[in-house]
Amino acid sequence: WIDAPTRVGDLLAKGVLGAENGEVIVSDSTTVNLFKLTSAILDGREGALLTDAGNFPTDRYVLEGLAAGRGRELRLFEPADTLHGPSPEDVAQAVAHADVALAVISHVAYSSGALADLKGIEAAAGSTPIVWDLSHSAGAVAADLSAAGARYAVGCTYKHLNAGPGAPAFLYVREDAQSALRSPIWGWFAQREQFAMERSYDPEPGIRRFLAGTPPILGLIAVQEGVKLTAEAGLPAIRAKSESLTELIVTYHDEHLAALGFELGSPRDPGRRGAHVSLRHPLAWPICRALIDRADVTPDFRGPDRVRLGVAPLYTTHVEVFDALERLRGLVELGEHELVDAAPSRVT
């Protein structure tokens, strides 16, 4: 069990992420991994921290905290096309000044589902390190990290990799970039010759240097099985199904939901979106509550006005998506969303 973080990391690297053995570990949470990785990069680079204004909140929060703690500037840029998110041109312009230390970009936008051009953005960034957040793409969209020239990434395993809430996340560092980085959290699982305990800290030379404490073995087993199933199904087949499922939502929106005040909040081109679709509506929050309370459908609410429908392509069927959309249409036509308790709740 002691080697589970790297053993499962290798499965994830080869079966899902398009990376090599020895480049991925599974440990900690996405937030902790993002902190460890960005902090290590910043140790060797001066300048500002960069991300887009619509990036996932934890990414922005981690960067905000690092900027405050290190006396750096955090720059938030607005993409030219806010629906489709950061483009290579946006990133090239944002890093044009030599004082950018690193940027954090999501492969798939958490709110709109927009799919970023990973390879194009890597090329546009030049020597500026990009840390990719793959949380909404891993297991649903091919990242092909090695082919894209990506050096750094983090992501979760409880969405499309189906490992369940609280499952450990992953961290990727390309092999040639590992030795120059040192995690800010020095723990005994990152120590070279771990059980030679009388020595001072001397980190492992490879990806293990980003480990910290004892790994959560039950969570790692769940990740392992989710990755195996995903690899067995194959990302090309999974991606084809996700495009078909989300296209069903878009078509149904155009034919039935637009007349009820909905607006598509995701890219129309299936090649430009991940495996979820956002539908915008002024009463999105009570509609979400009504779907949960009255229709046995579980969406997400993403402020200020989005009903987010995630379709895990590994097991979600077209019939299930169609039935959910029929229930959504029916409850809005009947005004059932006006009858629910719309008080704010902790989870949306």
Low-confidence stretches: none
Largest β-sheet summary: 7 strands, mixed
Q: How far from one another are the termini?
A: 36 Å
- Give the helix/strand class: alpha/beta
CATH architecture type of the largest domain: 3-Layer(aba) Sandwich
The order of strands across the largest sheet is 1-7-6-5-4-2-3
Enter the CATH topology name of the largest domain. Answer: Aspartate Aminotransferase, domain 2
Give the number of domains. Answer: 2
Q: Count the strands? A: 11
Portion of residues within helices: 25-40%
The geometry reads as globular
CATH class of the largest domain: Alpha Beta
Overall mean confidence score, pLDDT: 97
Order of helices and strands: HEHEHEHEHEHEEHHHEEHEEH
Q: In the CATH hierarchy, what is the superfamily of the largest domain?
A: Type I PLP-dependent aspartate aminotransferase-like (Major domain)
Instruction: Provide the gyration radius in Å.
Output: 21 Å
Quick take:
This protein is of the alpha/beta class and 348 residues long. It has helices spanning 4-17, 30-42, 57-70, 88-94, 118-125, 145-148, 175-178, 217-233, 235-257, 284-295, 318-334, and strands spanning 24-26, 48-52, 74-77, 100-106, 130-133, 152-155, 170-173, 263-264, 276-280, 300-302, 306-310.
